[in-house]
Amino acid sequence: MLGSAMGAVTLMGPAEAGNLDISPDSGRPGDEVTISGACSKDNDAQASITGKAIDNTTADIGQNGTFSTTSNVSYVKPGSYKVSFTCNASGLSGSTTFTVERKKKHYREPDGWAMTGGGGTQGPDVPWTPLGLALIGGAAGIGGFLMIRSKARGRA
């Protein structure tokens, strides 16, 4: 993205003094944008770029009088904001409008065991199945013993 934006500025030649371009022209807080423009004076070496919507920065001016740099979108309320530049030596300036969009909502992804209040269903804490089978087996054994005992008494 940065390489193609810089290439476009170089191919177009020196831009008209006072022009400022931000690509893309809107973004969310934290996004990176490319800011480019031009100064017409030979003695300009840097341009100061300021505005509420972007992190303030400086850009070095190339031999053809243009500059291009990257900056991040500031954490401000959504809306349109003025972004401007000033050529340090000549005082030439320009501005444009940049739109800050709503930031994306980040939802926490669920992880771990389901917290349903399901008792022993959440992990292998107690081996309930073998315990239940042992109790049923014991009850069946006792019942069988008593049945055999009562039949034996009845015959005697």
Characterize the structure shown.
With 156 residues, the chain is α+β, with helices and mostly antiparallel strands. Helices cover 25% and strands 30% of the residues. The protein has helices spanning 2-12, 128-155, and strands at residues 20-23, 26-27, 32-38, 46-51, 57-60, 66-72, 79-87, 93-100. The protein is rod-shaped.
How would you summarize what this structure contains?
The chain is an alpha+beta fold and 156 residues long. Helix content is 25%, strand content 30%.
The shape, in one word, is rod-shaped
* Count of discrete structural domains: 2
The first-level CATH class name of the largest domain: Mainly Beta
Beta-strand portion reads 25-35%
Helix and strand run = HEEEEEEEEH
In order across it, which strands form the biggest sheet? 2-8-7-4-5
**Number of distinct helices:** 2
Average pLDDT score: 79
Find the CATH superfamily of the largest domain. Immunoglobulins
Structural class: alpha+beta
> For the terminal residues, how far apart are their CA atoms?
101 Å
The radius of gyration over CA amounts to 38 Å
InterPro entries: Ig-like_fold
Transmembrane segments: 128-148
GO biological process, one term: carbohydrate metabolic process
Keywords: Membrane, Transmembrane, Transmembrane helix
